[in-house]
């Protein structure tokens, strides 16, 4: 008998950032999302900046970090505090549904496997419902 502990048989934890396609996939996802937001009468007024670029970068960096990529978002902006950061905006069912509409299109563009699509979509849908802070 060996004095060595048995080798671990555990599989490595998957890095969902890489499984979802890495930075390129998140760039495509967020670019597609904001292409829809740019012309949406419900969503566009929620972005006071003339250029959607800064919002695009914030969302992209947040999602990259959340899914296991570099933690640039936290380095640049601190803790995400999503509810607090969205508190100044009135987010009701109409806004949530518009957000989900554009995000669904963006996720579809990625052409993920059914399992990865479901995993990503479930998170995005929960996040959208979590952000609702008003009744219309």
UniProtKB/TrEMBL annotation:
Similarity comment: Belongs to the truncated hemoglobin family. Group II subfamily.
Key words of the record: Heme, Iron, Metal-binding, Transport
PANTHER family: TWO-ON-TWO HEMOGLOBIN-3
GO molecular function terms attached to this record: heme binding; metal ion binding; oxygen binding; oxygen carrier activity
The name this protein goes by in its record: Globin
Pfam families for the chain: Bac_globin
InterPro entries reported for this sequence: GlbO/GLB3-like, Globin-like_sf, Globin/Proto, Hemoglobin_trunc
Record carries keyword Heme: yes
Heme recorded as keyword: yes
Record organism: Catellatospora methionotrophica
């Amino acid at each position: 008998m060996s004095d060595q502990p048995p080798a671990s048989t555990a599989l490595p934890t998957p890095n969902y950032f890489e499984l979802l396609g890495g930075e390129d996939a998140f760039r495509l996802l967020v670019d597609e999302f904001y292409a829809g937001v740019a012309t949406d009468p419900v969503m566009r007024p929620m972005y006071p900046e003339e250029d959607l670029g800064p919002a695009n970068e914030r969302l992209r960096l947040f999602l990259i970090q959340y899914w296991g990529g570099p933690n640039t978002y936290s380095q640049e902006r601190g803790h995400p505090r999503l509810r607090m950061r969205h508190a100044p905006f009135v987010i009701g069912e109409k806004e949530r549904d518009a957000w989900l509409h554009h995000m669904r299109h963006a996720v579809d563009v990625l052409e993920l496997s059914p399992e990865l699509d479901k995993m990503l979509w479930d998170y995005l849908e929960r996040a959208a419902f979590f952000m609702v802070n008003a009744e219309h």
